[in-house]
Specification:
The chain has 18 helices and 20 strands. A 7-stranded mixed β-sheet has the order 8-7-16-17-18-15-19. The chain folds into 3 domains: about 190 residues, FAD/NAD(P)-binding domain; about 120 residues, Guanine Nucleotide Dissociation Inhibitor, domain 1 (Orthogonal Bundle), CATH 1.10.405; about 100 residues, Protoporphyrinogen oxidase, mitochondrial, domain 2 (Polyamine Oxidase, Chain A, domain 2). The chain is an alpha/beta fold and about 475 residues long. Helix content is about 35%, strand content about 20%. The site of flavin-adenine dinucleotide has 38 residues, from helix 1, strand 15 and helix 17.
Length: about 475
């Protein structure tokens, strides 16, 4: 049984791995020259890694960790202390962290009381508003809150505006690249529940080298070792249909015709929408995908000639064009200080710029200048440092905007079309669009495909 998968991000690779494990023959087609999609990494002319975006793993990403282990990359992640570190002006930091050595919810309570990010009034309002959520919140409750924005939820629960702006706005921007008065309450509450319940689940991890070398490359090697085929520079153009609406073949932009027994789209939703055959739009399943709109985001990398910070963790900031960032020369030292490219022992900052709708058309040098100015205000050492080079990756449509009401339109991996399936971070699984969500969707599509189209066993084939 041949399966053709289109899209070589985490979802497509995860689907390929699980289908190969089940004994299917798999061919994967990716439109770009590199695999990885939103976690892809490529080299500049100096040999330095350019990332599509700074990527952080949560301890609770069980599926992703098990997939990494499965492909022999269990050591891919460097775990950091669990702390929300906010960079403030002139080299100061404020921190929100759990009190170590105490069980939940006491660890959060004491940690929250000790935080210097917000004042006492904010702390009391946070305890009143969030403690019931940490103690009693469950998946059903989070889903039920998809009808309002996080700002509305926050106000209704009596938590102060200052706590929203200082603590949670950077988190909302880091999660989905949109403001708290735009994002649905659901993903924010899910994250609080994480942070509030289990130390292991909430801690941050960085890829030891970069997402490609630490994760995508081991996945690629696994697919090839199991006999799968991977074709890059192979863009899906359209599906050709049988009279009953099922897929007869897929046509690539090169004109090549791909025939298989089953077809899986692992494209981002905005790309898949362009390939949906008109005949399928009679199904709500496909029409509902037009509710999804991509979030614009940009990732900026800056190479300095000296260290401007010594913080080995994710950092957040407010009042800056970047919401979250890290010095990857410290956090992912296997790649960014490995001695190649421009490595001088200086800082390499990777910064996620959000919201980014107003940045997409702005010239890159103007954006970089703004980011450097903001960094100088935060880190005194940046004022003396020389900027060696910069890169800017703009993604006009990245993950879908998790706005109120959209969650219910997330499609199941099994479509109404007999031989056609969907996976990708936007499809239905318990996480919002994320690496974990993409990995889960790949497992789910393999399970649903094998349930609907069981692989013929050897005896049947011989008969
Ligand atoms: C800046 C940034 C920072 C992020 N940070 C984090 C983080 O810290 N933690 C986290 O968990 N998540 C993070 N994410 C989200 C995460 O990257 C995504 O949710 C996840 O990688 C999506 O995987 P996917 O396989 O579903 O889709 P994608 O990665 O988008 O893969 C889809 C693939 O399909 C290919 N494709 C598109 N059209 C075609 C076509 N016509 N034919 C063939 N191939 C096609 C694309 O080139 C791509 O390779 C971040 C995202 C961004 C943009």
């Amino acid at each position: 049984m041949n399966v053709a998968i289109f899209g070589g991000g985490i979802a497509g690779l995860s689907a390929a791995i699980h289908l190969l494990d089940k004994g299917y023959r798999v061919s994967l087609y990716e439109k770009r020259s590199v695999l990885g999609g939103k976690v892809s990494v490529w080299k500049d002319s100096d040999g330095d890694s350019i990332e599509s975006g700074l990527h952080v793993v949560f301890g609770g990403y069980k599926e992703l960790q098990s997939l990494l282990k499965h492909v022999g990359a269990e050591d891919a992640i460097l775990w950091k202390d669990l702390a929300l570190i906010y960079a403030e002006k002139d080299g100061k930091t404020t921190t929100f962290e759990k009190q170590k050595g105490l069980p939940s919810p006491y660890a959060e309570l004491l940690g929250g009381l000790k935080t210097n990010v917000v004042n006492w009034r904010d702390k009391l309002s946070l305890i009143r508003g969030l403690l019931p959520l940490i103690l009693f919140g469950d998946e059903d409750y989070f889903r039920s809150q998809d009808c309002i924005t996080y700002s509305d939820w926050h106000a209704r629960h009596g938590v102060t505006e200052n706590a929203l702006q200082r603590l949670w706005r950077p988190i909302s921007l880091a999660l989905n690249f949109i403001e708290p008065n735009v994002i649905s309450a659901r993903p924010m509450l899910t994250i609080f529940n994480y942070f509030g319940r289990n130390y292991e689940d909430a801690r941050f991890g960085f890829f030891k080298a970069n997402p490609n070398d630490s994760m995508i490359e081991p996945m690629r090697r696994y697919v090839l070792k199991k006999g799968g085929a991977i074709h890059c520079n192979a863009r899906l153009k359209e599906f050709l249909l049988h009279d009953d609406g099922s897929v007869q073949a897929a046509l690539l932009a090169s004109g090549e015709r791909i025939e298989a027994d089953a077809y899986v789209s692992a494209l981002p939703v905005h790309s898949f929408k362009k390939t949906i055959p008109k005949a399928w739009l009679k199904y709500d399943y496909f029409r509902n995908l037009f509710h999804f709109v991509g979030s614009p985001v940009a990732n900026c990398q800056l190479w300095f000639d000296r260290k401007i910070t010594d913080i080995d963790n994710l950092m957040f900031a407010h009042g800056t064009s970047f919401a979250t960032f890290a010095d990857v020369s410290i956090a992912c030292a296997d790649d960014y200080q490995a001695g190649q490219g421009t490595a001088t022992g200086g800082s390499v900052l990777s910064l996620v710029l959000a919201p980014a709708h107003h940045l997409i058309d702005l010239p890159n040098d103007v954006i970089v200048e703004q980011v450097v100015k903001e960094l100088k205000a935060l880190f005194p050492k940046a004022r003396e440092a020389k900027l060696l080079k910069s890169s800017l990756v703009k993604i006009p449509e990245s993950v879908y905007k998790a706005v109120p009401g959209v969650d219910r339109f997330r499609p199941d991996q099994a479509s109404p079309i007999r031989n056609f399936f969907l996976c990708g971070d936007y499809t239905y699984q318990k996480y919002l669009a994320s690496m974990e969500g993409a990995a889960l969707s790949g497992r789910a599509v393999a399970e649903k495909l094998s349930a609907r189209l069981p692989k013929r066993n050897r005896i049947e084939l011989l008969a």
